[in-house]
Design a protein that fits this description.
The chain has 196 residues and is mainly alpha-helical. The protein is built from eleven helices and three strands.
Length: 196
């Protein structure tokens, strides 16, 4: 281990303490700004703004690597969602963060909530059930959760459902536009291989 001019070498990779300190300071400053925006939104009691502020805090925490804080911020954002598509999107983020944290209980819970929501939430009908992309994302998340839990035959059933969607190729092709993490975790080739 070498320590010359605030740089340390671990296994042949230089560790730049000054850069790390700078990034942490920028992250703190960004978080402080976002927390202030949240306080302003809360003082005005505007549900949409509060939800947006919590989502921004969650994204910032996830980008900084603080998955626990991101998880809690996403859950708070869900409390302020004003429509079904927004609730679905936030729940998908919660599932994604839960899987990244290996919090399989939370992932399974929110997958079940999403499945209920996509079925129409008890009388909403199929038109209220979300898009085909939402269904693909939930089934993909379900398969990932089941694989992580060691339930490979159930994961296979979920992946088989994903493969049967007509829009699955488009969903993965457009993943760059939607920037949804669940589609970055698996590719159509992965699904085909696991489902074969």
């Amino acid at each position: 281990v070498t320590s010359s001019n605030a740089s340390t070498t671990f296994t042949g990779v230089d560790y730049d303490a000054a850069w790390v300190d700078q990034q942490e300071a920028q992250s703190r400053q960004s978080r402080d700004v976002l927390e202030h925006r949240l306080q302003v939104s809360q003082s005005q009691l505007h549900k949409e703004s509060i939800c947006t502020a919590y989502l921004s805090l969650a994204q910032q925490a996830a980008t900084s690597g603080d998955l626990v804080q991101a998880f809690h911020a996403f859950i708070r954002a869900k409390d302020y969602c004003t429509n079904r598509p927004q609730t679905t999107a936030v729940c998908l983020q919660i599932v994604s963060i839960s899987l990244a944290m290996r919090n399989l209980i939370a992932a399974k819970d929110y997958i079940h909530k999403l499945e209920h929501t996509l079925r129409g939430g008890g009388g909403g009908g199929t038109s209220a059930g979300g898009t085909e992309l939402d269904q693909i994302l939930v089934q993909t998340a379900s398969a990932l959760e089941r694989m992580a839990s060691g339930m490979f035959s159930e994961a296979l059933r979920s992946l088989m459902q994903v493969v049967q969607h007509e829009e699955v190729e488009n969903a993965f092709a457009n993943a760059g536009a939607s920037k949804h993490q669940l589609l970055y975790w698996v590719s159509p080739q992965d699904i085909s291989m696991y489902a074969a």
